[in-house]
Amino acid sequence: MNLLTGEYNNTLDEKGRVTFPAKLRSEINQNVLIITRGLDRCLWLFTSEEWDLLKNKLMNSTSLFNEKNRMVLRHFIAPAQEVEFDKTGRISVPQSLREYASLSKDCTILGVGKYIELWNSTSYDEYLCSSEASFKEAAEELNNINF
């Protein structure tokens, strides 16, 4: 799988389906994705391979006897589901995940390297505005990266 990049706007239909951009589908090069809750009230989508890597790292580094660890597992692992592309390149987003991310109509799809984020477009715009100052601080901390 190549690096997933790009920002795309699409709409969620009345049946909870969203069309994925052809560029992302071609980079994914498979018919199934794993979708789960992300951070910041968006959804994360992974190829099966990337999901297995993340899931195994989480499972191997957490303890069922630690409350915070169980919370993380319940947030990411428990709601994860497989979704398939239909003939027209759409995926059906499960109702519980649509509710978590407040998906209704306008959606933003982001290629973020090894995974994809699916946002309510309004929530994403608000996130960008509210995180601008923090983003600048985080970027400053990357000062050891030279071109």
Structural topology:
Layout: E1 4-11, E2 17-19, H1 22-28, E3 32-37, E4 43-46, H2 48-60, H3 67-76, E5 81-84, E6 90-92, H4 95-100, E7 106-113, E8 116-120, H5 121-130, H6 132-140
Can you walk through the features of this model?
The protein is of the alpha+beta class and 147 residues long. It contains 6 helices and 8 strands, in the order E-E-H-E-E-H-H-E-E-H-E-E-H-H. The strands form 2 sheets. The chain has a 6-stranded antiparallel β-sheet. A hairpin with a 2-residue loop joins strand 7 and strand 8. The longest helix is centred in the middle third of the chain and has 13 residues, at 48-60. It is globular and about 45 Å long. It starts with a strand and ends in a 7-residue tail after the last helix.
Keywords for this entry:
8 strands; globular; alpha+beta; two-stranded antiparallel ribbon; 147 residues; single chain; 28% strand
Q: Brief overview, please?
A:
The chain has 147 residues and is of the alpha+beta class. Helix content is 37%, strand content 28%.
